[in-house]
Amino acid sequence: MQYLLISGALRKDSVNTQLLHMAARHLELPTDSIADLNEFAIPLYSGDIEAVGIPEGVKRLGDLVAKAQALIVSSPEYNYSVSGVLKNAIDWLSRIRPMPLTKKPLLLMTASPGQIGGIRGAWQTRIPFEGLGNYVYPEMFSLSNSYQAIANDAFTNSDDQKRFNTMLTAFQEFAKNLTTPSCT
After folding, report:
1. pTM score of the predicted model
2. What is the number of other CB atoms lying within 10 angstroms of the CB of residue 43?
3. Which of 10, 138, 154, 177 is the most buried (most CB within 10 A)?
4. Residue 147 dihedral angles phi and psi, to the nearest 5°
5. pLDDT at 181 exceeding the cut of 80
6. What is the pLDDT of residue 141?
7. Can you tell me the distance from the alpha carbon of 135 to that of 179, in angstroms, rounded to the nearest whole number?
8. ∠159-25-69 over CA atoms, to 5°?
């Protein structure tokens, strides 16, 4: 199965991006399966820009999304909601025809230095993905106290590691079941 992992953070040392690298290792994916939104130079969405044409960076990201059979998105919570950079990318992707961001199994993850673990933002992030017709996995992975929860690209708490592994394995099965044609 071809996965695309997308971080909703631009920061180089983002814990959410770290989660994606850990997920890629667990799923035995190549590192190029992780999309760094910094590499696409996506402008803020504007109908005026769209009228001139979809920016090349948006098209490149759209091609990656279109080729992926399943998506994993890890994003910080910004002011109890979706990160602006991720929402902007979603808005641009929704303008491409045919629209690549639909009918994809999708897992949401979040990490935050706070006690809530970014889950409020993850709930808000579900809305545009579900609205565009994606199959968002019912559970979401949320990691609180993230600056202490990960060290040397590994969880410091075995319970977090077990929860992470269990969710990724369950999501793999979920995605496989949605993308494999059933036999009748």
Report:
1. 0.95
2. 13
3. 10
4. -70, -25
5. no
6. 97
7. 11
8. 110
